[in-house]
Design a protein that fits this description.
CATH architecture: 3-Layer(aba) Sandwich
CATH class: Alpha Beta
Number of helices: 4
Largest sheet: 7 strands, mixed
Order of helices and strands: EHHEEEHEHEE
Strand content: 25-35%
Distance between the termini: 34 Å
Oligomer: single chain
Helix content: 25-40%
Number of strands: 7
Structural class: alpha+beta
Length: about 150
Amino acid sequence: MVLSTVTARILTQDLWDAACKLSVHAHQLKEVSTVSEALILVKRSTSKNPNVPVGVFLDEKLVGFLLLLCDTLSNSNFWISRFFIDKQFQGQGLGFKSIPQIIALLRKTFPNADRLNLCVNPSNTPARKLYKKCGFVEQQNWIINGDNVWSIDL
């Protein structure tokens, strides 16, 4: 039995086209934007407040995408945005396996990072279960655009 390895790596521009081909199921479209929309944010980011595109890989195959965002108010506070696993690879535990890899990449890339946040639609039960299992805590009184904020101290 061959074990597959899940990794998270900064997406270089040569992989952007491949990332744009990733997609979610139709009923999930309201939860995440497209990779193309996310990459517009990358192009607009600054060195002070970077938006870093990250790929989730199963062995060497790109299977997921997210942005790591630096908070505009604190350079030690980061956000996961637009995180998803491609519809062909969902249900295999790759989201769960990728979170520690994403955190390790964040720590390596931004050693000053001390907190990681993300927003979850209150009706997105699978995402809520995933983030709780990974150690994120729902911030009871912090809501952004109707989504609950979840955080983990690094």
